[in-house]
Request: fold
Amino acid sequence: MAREQGLGLDALVDVLKAAGEPTRMRLLALLAAGDLTVTDLTEILGQSQPRISRHLKLLAEVSLIDRYQEGAWAYFRLKGEGAGVALVRGLLSAANADDAVLTRDGERLASLKLTRSEKAQAYFSRNAAEWDELRRLHVSEADVEAALKEMVGPEPVDGLLDLGTGTGRILQLFEGIYQRGVGVDASRDMLAVARANLDRAGITKASIRHGDIFNLPLDGRQFDLVTIHQVLHFLQQPEAAIAEAARMLSPGGRLAIIDLAPHALEYLRDDHAHVRLGFSRQTMTDWLEKAGLTVEQAVDLTPDTDRDRQLTVTIWLARDQRQASAFDTPAGKRALAHAGRT
Reply:
């Protein structure tokens, strides 16, 4: 395995200058724990918004943090990789666990996350009855998740993208195999639920983004695995969403789609906003092939004898057919990124 390239002298000094200030080190410690807004950070640190924004700008200039927009809000987090980030993580690990300032920051962060979780849970509870009704119509979620995990397999992946992430369950399900996870959803209420669930599970290597599944706020060819779980039947143009998902795949990457097989429950259109009453294997195969993917597996999960369960769930696993070069491997991507900064 290629050794990850370190920082040049000037870049090393720049990172140390940016991180070597008490407020900025506190910010880095907080952003290592997940996505936070400027408002969140001002509440925790008790400093003015212009001051916090100025510190964040300095950290962004040396590529230590990511910034992304979600409506009127901007979220920040510690970058997932890079020599500068590795250095910062080492510095944070050297901090005294009993330091009074960092301890107080951690307590305020925990309180903020608790408040965020309670708000998200209130929204989830208001809609739980509807979701439970839909789940009762098909094979259990545990069976679906077990089949999906078996199809995907245990091999590690560099990046996982979950489209229509909802509660963030897929990001939790595959937490053990990805280095970097991103969940995208159009509903800000569901994004709050997903963030709260990731906070509760202690997952900091996954982030949540607001976005349009037809026009994702991400660069293409970044992800080894993309998932679309029970989303396509809500869309007028599911084939366009598949094409956009395929654009996200690294060469040789895989797309997993979990959705309903064709059915005749017309009331789901009016009562639950289903646009499509399931998808045949042939239709899905045609869409995937048009997007440049080849179906490797398709599995039907059909209810056995329970008459209340009337829907079959199908899982399709398709692969991008472009050949991966040395720079399309996780190590190669890191080497190329470092080369671009030197």
The radius of gyration is 22 Å. The chain is about 45% helix and 20% strand. Confidence is low (pLDDT under 50) at residues 335-342. Residues 100-135 form the longest helix (36 residues).
